[in-house]
Amino acid sequence: MLFDISPKERREDFYDREGELRSLVEALRLGERLVVVYGARRIGKSSLVRVGVREIRAPYVLVDVRKLYFEEGSVRPAGFVAWLVDAMRMRSKWYERIGFRLGDALSRVRGIHAAGFGVELELKARPRLTEVLEALDEWCGEHGWRFAIVFDEAQYLRFSNTRYDGIIAWAIDNLPNLTFILTGSEVGVLREFLRLEDPEAPPYGRYRREIFLEKFTPRQALGFLKAGFKELGLQVRGAELEEAVDKLDGIVGWLTLYGYKRSIRRTPHRKTLETVFEEGSRIVLAELSKIIEYSKARYTAILKAVAQGATRWRDIKTYVEVRTGERIPDNRFTQLLGNLVKYGYLVKQGDEYSIPDPMVKHAVKNL
Ligand SMILES: Nc1ncnc2c1ncn2[C@@H]1O[C@H](COP(=O)(O)OP(=O)(O)OP(=O)(O)O)[C@@H](O)[C@H]1O
Ligand SMILES: [Mg+2]
After folding, report:
1. In order of start, what are the domains of the chain with their CATH numbers?
2. C-alpha 3 to ligand 1 mean position (Å)
3. Do 358 and 247 meet the contact criterion of CB atoms below 8 Å apart?
4. Among 57, 282, 342, 359, which is most buried by a count of CB atoms within 10 Å?
């Protein structure tokens, strides 16, 4: 169902994105070793990756690094391997469906045992990540498989004493049967973590395929809503769909929530929009609060300024200083603005700043 609100896994539930999907599938078919998927929050990164690997029936594992970080408070190596094995365990049905014997592949690693098509980790075992990856690669090489390792929201790997960028670079050089797929909604942060532009950094100079997910165009957004309602056999007025697209923009996550509430909950158009904005704002503010924790008043004032129409550095700064009642040194202010861009809450075009997500705009106005 197109309006299902969990990340999609099946092609038929996933609207359009043909070019992006083709690119991902091609990378896997060609045996490329690193794919990076960038895109704002709720734009469909996790869905794209799941649909892509399943399209070609590739064995894969997906580690939600953001979730790991928020549940464990850091990304420690032992915890990371346990999460990886757990994520593999959750995919055992998929391995069985495609005939991939993960248990055989990993039973060479001390502390890991085959369990059906999946694996289990001994309670006290502490295998190293490199050891697990090496075993997997070797077995895949011998049996003609390519295994995709997905680190969803990979920028959270930076919260660790372990240099995961180094491990990934090592794996790309030495493990030809694995493809790493990294996604990130904090585009600037992920690029900084991977240090793709830094000649001193491990991943530098390695070939990678980069896929950028953009918002749906108004036409695509409208097409998506129409297709979703049609699938459910519901008649809806064109003008209402146009309003929904106008308000929610081409962010598929919000459009999906609208479609879901309207069709499953059967609430009328206006009421649905209202609840989408209410719920959406809550989600946005919860995410935002973790990011702006350290300079809350200043970040909040910046976002409010832009939400209310200030677009230039000078105007935003004036607003922020009046609101917070303090003078902020120019370079510090530039840095704060830059951080919001890096995290995807602002975009800068020429000399002008704007908020790309209507939900963020709505949420910060009420702060
Ligand atoms: N092409 C698509 N067709 C239909 N639904 C989609 C599509 N892309 C994403 N969705 C839906 O939009 C929502 C967000 O998708 P997803 O979780 O894949 O995005 P994301 O970019 O990974 O978001 P986040 O930044 O929150 O991790 C989900 O409800 C998903 O089902
Ligand atoms: Mg995601």
Report:
1. 17-213 (3.40.50.300), 218-288 (1.10.8.60), 294-365 (1.10.10.10)
2. 10
3. yes
4. 359
Any residues with CB less than 8 A from the CB of 230 and at least 6 apart, and which?
none
50 within ligand 1 shell (Cβ under 6 A): no
pLDDT at 354 over 80: yes
Give residue-wise pLDDT tens across range 199-234: 776 666 678 899 999 999 999 999 999 999 999 999
Q: Which residues of 185-194 are buried (b: 16+ CB within 10 A; e: fewer)?
A: bbbbbbbebb
Assess contact for 142 and 135: CB atoms under 8 A. Answer: no
Could you identify the atom of ligand 1 that is nearest to the CA of residue 153?
27
Residue 179 has a pLDDT of: 97
CA–CA–CA angle 136, 138, 140 (5° rounding) = 65
Q: Positive or negative, the Cα torsion across 25, 9, 165, 119?
A: negative
pLDDT at 353 over 90: yes
Sequence-distant (6+) residues with CB within 8 A of 204 are 195, 196, 197, 198
For residue 228, which atom of ligand 1 is closest to its CA?
A: 4
Q: Residue of the nearest CA to atom 12 in ligand 1?
A: 253
pTM of the predicted structure, to 2 decimals:
0.95
CA–CA dist 263, 255 (Å, integer): 12
Counting Cβ atoms within 10 Å, is residue 322 exposed (0-12), middle (13-18) or buried (19+)?
exposed
Note whether 261 and 276 are within 8 A (CB).
yes
Evaluate the CA torsion angle 110, 116, 117, 123 in order and state its sign.
negative
Please name which of 52, 74, 7 lies closest in space to residue 181, comparing C-alpha atoms.
Answer: 52
Note the Cα 222 to chain centre separation in Å. Answer: 23
